[in-house]
Design a protein that fits this description.
62% of the residues lie in helices and 8% in strands. With 98 residues, the protein is mainly alpha-helical. It has one domain (2-91). A two-stranded antiparallel ribbon has the order 1-2. It is elongated and about 60 Å long.
Length: 98
């Protein structure tokens, strides 16, 4: 069965688990950036300052990435809905377990 994605709900991007997954990845990236990789600028920072930097980095990363995803979904909806271009086609098969 072939399905075509004609519309992406912007609200579903914001209220789904996508921002939480991005936050978890941002925490890992922040930990690597501020704790693992040696950097002479981070040397005088204490542990609390590094943890605060990781948290702020993760929050800012989530906000920016979610905004980019919302903008991309909006542009996709304009192209498929208003301009009438074709959307992404998914070929889905139903599996029967014996």
């Amino acid at each position: 069965m072939k399905l075509e994605v004609r519309n992406i709900s912007v609200a579903s991007l914001v209220t789904s688990s996508v921002p939480l997954v991005i936050f978890a990845l941002a925490l890992l990236g922040g930990a690597v950036t501020f704790m693992v990789v040696p950097n002479i600028q981070m040397a005088p920072m204490g542990t609390f300052q590094k943890l605060l930097s990781i948290g702020l980095y993760a929050l800012l990363y989530v906000v920016i990435t979610t905004a980019v995803l919302v903008f991309a979904a909006f542009i996709y909806n304009v192209f498929t809905g208003v301009l009438g271009l074709r959307g992404v086609t998914l070929d889905i098969e139903e599996l029967h377990h014996d």
